[in-house]
Structures are given as C-alpha cells and as structure tokens.
Amino acid sequence: MTSAPRPGTADSPSAAAPAPTAPAPPGAPDTLLGQLGTLATEAFRPELAEIDRLPTLDLARLMNGEDHAVPAAVAARLPEIAAVIDAVAARMARGGRLVYAGAGTAGRLGVLDASECPPTFNADPGQVVGLIAGGPDALVTSVEGAEDSRELAVRDLDALGLTAEDTVVGVSASGRTPYALGAVAHARARGALTVGLACNPGSALAAAADHGIEVVTGPELVTGSTRLKAGTAQKLVLNMISTLTMIRLGKTYGNLMVDVRASNDKLRARSRRIVALATGADDAETERALAATGGEVKNAILVVLAGVDGPTAARLLEESGGHLRAALAAAAP
User: Is 219 helix (H, G, I), strand (E, B) or coil?
Assistant: First the structure.
C-alpha cells in the first residue's frame, strides 16, 4: 500500500505551488481571536494547505492516519480517567447522577452517551443526563449564542435539582467554552463532583474542575474543526466513563450486558443469548428462567445458576445492590 503524498512535494498534485508558511495568529492576546490562536486544536498546519487538490483516496488515507493518533492521546490520560470512574461510581452507588454538559459537538456527544445508557445497562433515564447548550434544538441546528452563556448552564443544572451526590462533566475541545465552564463552576459550588474534559493543555476547564482530563489531540486536518480528532477523543473518553462506571456498579457479569433492557426483538434475542452464555442453559431452560423473572436477564441467570425462584432472585439481587456475583455468593449453601 502506498502512503498518501505530502501536499507541496513532487508526488502531489500541488508540486508547482510553493508550500505556504504559517501566518502569525491574528488578534491581540486578550481577545477571543487571540486566545483561539494559542490553542493546539485551532492551529493552522501549512503542510496541509493544498489537501483539497489531492485525490480522494489519498485524502482518505491522510485522514485515517490522523485518526490513528487519537487512541494514544487517550492512553496518556488513563490514570486520570480511572480516577474519575472510581469517583463517579462511588457517588452513583449512593444514588447520584452523571451529568454531561457541553456545547456543539461536545454537547451532542454527551447527549448521545447518556441516551445509550438506559437500553444498554437498564439504567434509569435520569441516571445519566446529557445537557447541550441551547437544549434539544441544538442537537440538529446551531442555537445562536448558547455556548457563550454561563447563566444558561446554571439554569439547566438547577432544573435538574443538582445535589452533592451528582457528578457534572464539562466537555469542551477548547477547554474555554463558557457553557461548560459555567456548568462546572456552578456544580462545584453546590458540592457536586466535577470533571473537566478538554483537548488542549493548560485549559481553564480542567483547572476549574475537581478532576481534569486533557486529551491533547493537536491541530485538526481541517483547521479548527474539532468534530474530528478532538470529537473522536471525547467520544472515547465518554464511552469509557459511562461503560466502566456501569461495570463498577454491577451492570455486567464478566463482559455480558446482564442489565440490558429488552425493548425490541433484537434485544429480546440478545437477552436469551446472554442467559445461555452465562449459564450454559439450553433454549427451553433459558425461556423458563426469563419467563419466571419477567424477562430480567440478571435475575434469570441467578434462577438458573443458583436454582432459586424468580422472587428469591429479585430479593438476593436487591440485597446485593444489584451485583450478580455477590447475589450468587449469597445464594450458595
């Protein structure tokens, strides 16, 4: 496989054009324009200034190569991410909620991650919440000025009835978005746990939170388009926070989604498969166990493995805080 030619070289369609030099960042340092010029995610890359002249396959290879750097950037922050997960899980075990707050792409990613927790982990819809500056309309269109409002973040959090047991994760590629900063500041003042997830070093968002996670992904293929590498990094981190927190809360048995909510035919089939994988039961025994437990996968596994009835399985799980391994141990003679 050949690598993509570098723009401005003899192998590229732009060989005749001299490679441009990086312009000086515009704007005074104390203005927003000047501040953006200091951010790694906003940096201009002169070596990519002719990419619009490349063949499409070369463009695809170039972009794919850019994306390869994202997992390594996330890996560099794993200790901070793990500390966040343990802190979030401890609070959620006491009834706290996980709240994401962001604008634009960051906000949409938070809403996406939150919306996937109920069907995947049978989480209450209010247990993981995604707030986006401008509200639901901002999921599909730009809401003018919403991301610039700290006050809007305060109103959105107050509408949730924020408590000290909750966790608020402010998400912003730049690490300076007023909505995310306002959410973290307000949550911290209320005693909630706060996390600042950014993609620039030395960010105001990370500094404002109890836990800062700065996944530094560098300049984008398209200058300033942080829906690319920065967005991918944010998605990976949010996946990790929600998924591993749910594992810590007993929402899986090994790597099986034993708290899956069977809300459609695919998930009902998956429920039967999970019970069979966890227990080795045949189809008939799996169906009987699910029927005895109202379709609850975790309960059905306990019925099969512990030889108890449906109500007993429900009681054992309640007493064990929903942890299947603990319930199985309690059921053992």
Answer: coil
